[in-house]
């Protein structure tokens, strides 16, 4: 029965917990969106927390602060440790090695109740279930909640000690003020950094604080035995309670469909489901249960309420492990979701029965100063079943704590060996395997090590020589302008300068440009911002408005014009069709306007054709970036479940001695066709006609003779994600970029040539000759590349959109050890006849490159 206050148990609120956990589980598994369940949990936690803790603190016989803290942890920590330990052990067994270090670190953060901050500051936004999502992601709420509870417990204890009889009124004032401030902070931070806003305990406090105020208004508690004060909000009439219950439940349930919680909570829209929760609580105030209150007090809802904590802990790891190991998506296979829910319910019930309840204190202990009371500790350990349980919990927690350092030590030792190997450019030629025909020896382990992405970043990242998404500051000095040392690479003492401007696709070439600058005596000066090509009219990566990019671009242009470089600027000259990375490539008009502005100011521009962006299912409406690093890691271990082709590959027999056939099998899964991203002819040739530019193109180094662009090239891992090169692979472009910048100096078409090309294209369209033109192009393609059976390796036609089948030896991409010179479809750019990387990588000046061939100005296809 519902009751109005005091210490009577509120069955309706227990049922509301059950409804909240049901929404969390259903939306996580079947909908892939954030529901309002967690927010309702936070509100309900506040309702009971503040009143009870104040009553305890005001009671001379109440528990001390340390006792209260231990009591809280005794209720929450044991099951958390069990779930965390089992999830970690299972994840290390089932999930790719690529994720093991993050898995171990996240488990420790979950156990230490700081995973919300770890997720926030590692850039991991709250997202739906996937094979690469942390199985501990959902525990952010447990961390934020405990942080708020501990901080609030300190304040409540101090207020009770200082204000005594008036502490209740003072607490209401303080709690109201902090709740309002937290709400304002959450509203502000939503527009500044929603990822941090979602996880931050400072942003989340207002939800618990609102619950605390509500609890003291409608369910005030007595201090120690006397009759509780009257509720400030009177009990509603029966018909109002019926309306409140229906409307409240409807608001709670509909929130997940009406509001994108991941991008809005805990901002102002969170008031919608919390208002619904308040209405449901008011509907259960006093009298016989009616309407929704009766439903919430049903046996099933009470059962869900009792196991809500355990069910919350278990359901997400179950979901992530199934998706990661088997590749089954419950949103597409409902029967899998039903199975996950059934298994989670069983585990939750068992956990509640054999972990939570046995360790629960039977009665409230006597007040004692825990830290120096032998009697307290004796009373705690003399009940042997609880002592055994506690020792097991501590053993599990200890295992979680030591796992992280062990995993990191193992990966570090292996990584050091691989980093030593990659310095041998003859055994690891990278893109020169495709572009220059330098063979890649067999039985060489894949390098650089791909478990951790941080070491794969360009030097500007650890040096603090770029700015993030939010700010529009020009970073010209290291450590984000906090250092006196300027951001300079190449020959840092030279008076000759090149500015590398733009976003991450300009930044990724810094390892190569650093070598080029040292060779040519040029200072390379980056001016970079994440996701922001200069003057680009694009949204942020998530589709939201990007005002900081526009403001930053204006500052960059002004800086370049006010402080012109001696040799020119360096940036990408093309980009994909949209922010997601889908093809075909394009030259945005604003890029041309920017380069024209530089040309008019007498500033030369080096324009790099953007590389392929690898996508899954590019021919379908629904696609996503294909993370090449993760794909390689999963294939190497035989844990790739995203595709049928991946599932058939058992992994490398010996990761230290992979065969060509194994590398080919990995590349057949981890790659994409060139036409998915790039046009047959570099669009820069026509777009920048008549401007003072040098056109650069490294495409021949990343796509093979069969037009397949794989993840492993010349024994090197090419990408750190879906479209950014690893620093090692990027450094191998140094000779090619040097040659194209200072020897070949490929220019765009003249204005007359560009106009003629446009007229011919428009004429073909006007005369209805598109089909004939495509037929002629196909004939030329057949002449240049041959039919499928004439292709090297018998690779399928890239225009079919199919990946090579790794079960068919004749359908594999070009062999990584095979040269390209003289093969059908050879697309290599003119380059120095003898690459000089062994000395070049040691910063020694190599011989001058050979003179440019006669056809250096001719644009190659692709």
**Mean pLDDT over the residues:** 86
DSSP strand content: under 5%
What radius of gyration results from the CA coordinates? Answer: 32 Å
| First-last Cα distance | 74 Å
Q: Please report the number of helical segments.
A: 32
Report helical residue fraction: 40-55%
Assembly state here?
A: single chain
What's the β-strand tally? 12
Shape: elongated
Strand order of the largest sheet: 1-3-2-4-5-9
Provide a descriptive summary of the structure in words.
Helix 3 packs parallel to helix 15 and helix 6 packs antiparallel against helix 7. Helix content is 50%, strand content 5%. With 862 residues, it is mainly alpha-helical. The termini are far apart. The chain has 32 helices and twelve strands. The protein is elongated. The strands form four sheets. It has a six-stranded mixed beta sheet, with helices on both faces. Strands 6-7 form a two-stranded antiparallel ribbon. Strands 8-10 form a two-stranded antiparallel sheet.
Task: For the structure shown, list the relevant keywords.
32 helices, two-stranded antiparallel sheet, disordered C terminus, 862 residues, disordered N terminus, mainly alpha, elongated
Question: Could you provide a short overview of the structure?
Answer:
By secondary structure, the chain is mainly α. It contains 32 helices and twelve strands.
